[in-house]
Amino acid sequence: MDRLQIDAEHVIARYLAGQLSAAEENGFEEYAAGHPEIFREVESTLRMKEGLAVLRDRGELQALLRVRDWRPSFAAAAAAVLVVLALGVWTWRHAVAPITPVMAGLPGFVGRDSGSLPVAATYILVRSRGESPAAEIRTPAQRAAIQIRILPSVFVMGGRYRATLQRIDADGGKTLVRDIGGLEAAADRFVTLYLDSAQLTTGRYEIALAESDSPASSESDRFTIRAQ
Amino acid sequence: MQLTGLGMEEAPRGEVLTQEILRDMAGLQLQLARVTRDRELAADILQDAVVTALQKLRAGEISDRAQLDGYVYRVALNHFRNHLRKDKSHISDRDAPADLADTAARELPESLGQAQWARVAKQLLNEIRPVRDRDLLVRFYLNEESKEQLCESFGLSELHFNRVIFRARGRFKELLKRRGLARSDFWSIAFILLVP
């Protein structure tokens, strides 16, 4: 028997536990007689056994064996960092974006913080023949919800609608701000949206409403509003 | 502590050496106390081994400190294993070792060394991931289950088993050393104490 075998085959622990065959036992004892430094390893192993035995005696061992891994793996930690980073970026973008009116079809939902703001004003948008001027929307001094009620030109009982809000740039270009699906017309046929006044900065916007299932190319009800 | 068999002029030096040897074999002594459930008996066994070794040294049968320590350790270890065998022959079920250990714990107050090693063992267990590997370590070293049994029970390969045990063993030694609890100068304490 040599040191390599003693280490590789855990001979010391097995020797102490009486698990070696007679031949292995003789081999180890012969080795130990010629290499007394091996008793350092034996002593170290005995100290570990004693340390574990003390933990058992104290009744601490079972708890140590039951403790679940709480430390995240590197991958989980990296994923968590990414999520936090993404949330941070999202929050920052939405916090500093100058034009971020939010629409939603659910009463009470008026902004990204889902706060229940008081409704400051209600505007009704109905499609009319010919060119319509932009509807003027006055943003209140205090943050509040602005209710927009739209009468769709095509009413389908139980049908779903999709609304988009786009900011109209100075050059006439449009920037999509929000796209909301799953809106439903009420019994009075109106589809209701809410805007958060705090997020509605001065400028022109276009609200378009169409049936959810209709192709993108199909005609929708379009309204221009001017926030001031 | 009496050192029978030594000349009067050698006794003080022999006593110092005996203390050092016993200190370096504290793990063996405590494990011996555990299996005999008698700390006095364990101390006596080691004491006798030391005295015999010193006599052999005097007679020229042992030539250096390493051999001296090795001799003492071997003799004491034989006692330990004999008691362990006796102990195991009285055990008929798997729960019995815990009962015996509990009895021993009640009878023997915890020493400083035990408390320190327990702290190191606790740190070791806390460091081991996953929890299954902790269980493996405890069942191998404490419950003395065989490698084959454990590999089968945990569905592990021999390679995995070896890796876990090897790492744990190395880490335990490292922690002992870091806390200054490794065998101190086992082989290097001045042999000059006995050799004029």
Q: What are the SSEs and their pairings?
A:
The complex is a heterodimer of chains A (228) and B (196).
Chain A: H1 3-8, H2 11-16, H3 22-34, H4 38-58, H5 61-66, H6 74-96, E1 119-126, E2 135-137, E3 145-151, E4 160-168, E5 174-184, E6 191-196, E7 203-211, E8 221-227
Parallel strand pairs in A: 1-3, 2-8
Antiparallel strand pairs in A: 3-6, 4-5, 4-7, 7-8
Chain B: H1 11-24, H2 26-36, H3 39-58, H4 65-89, H5 96-107, H6 112-127, H7 131-141, H8 147-154, H9 158-178
Helix pairs in contact in B: 1-3, 2-3, 2-4, 3-4, 6-9
Characteristic key phrases:
heterodimer; A: Immunoglobulin-like; 3 domains; 5-stranded mixed sheet; B: 196 residues; mainly alpha; Arc Repressor Mutant, subunit A; 2 domains; 0% strand; elongated; disordered N terminus
Summarize the structure.
With 228 residues, chain A is of the alpha/beta class. Chain A has 6 helices and 8 strands.
Describe this structure in words.
The complex is a heterodimer of chains A (228) and B (196). Chain A is an alpha/beta fold and 228 residues long. Chain A is 33% helix and 26% strand. The longest helix of chain A is centred in the middle third of the chain and has 23 residues, at 74-96. Chain A is rod-shaped and about 110 Å long. In chain A, 30% of the residues are buried. Chain B folds into 2 domains: 11-102, no CATH class; 113-178, Winged helix-like DNA-binding domain superfamily/Winged helix DNA-binding domain (Arc Repressor Mutant, subunit A, Orthogonal Bundle), CATH 1.10.10. In chain B, helix 2 packs across helix 3, helix 2 (26-36) packs parallel to helix 4 and helix 6 (112-127) crosses helix 9 (158-178). The longest helix of chain B is centred in the middle third of the chain and has 25 residues, at 65-89.
Please report the distance between the alpha carbons of the first and last residues of chain B. Answer: 23 Å
- Proper CATH architecture of the largest domain in chain A: Sandwich
Largest inter-chain interface?
A: A-B, 42 and 63 residues
Largest sheet properties of chain A: 5 strands, mixed
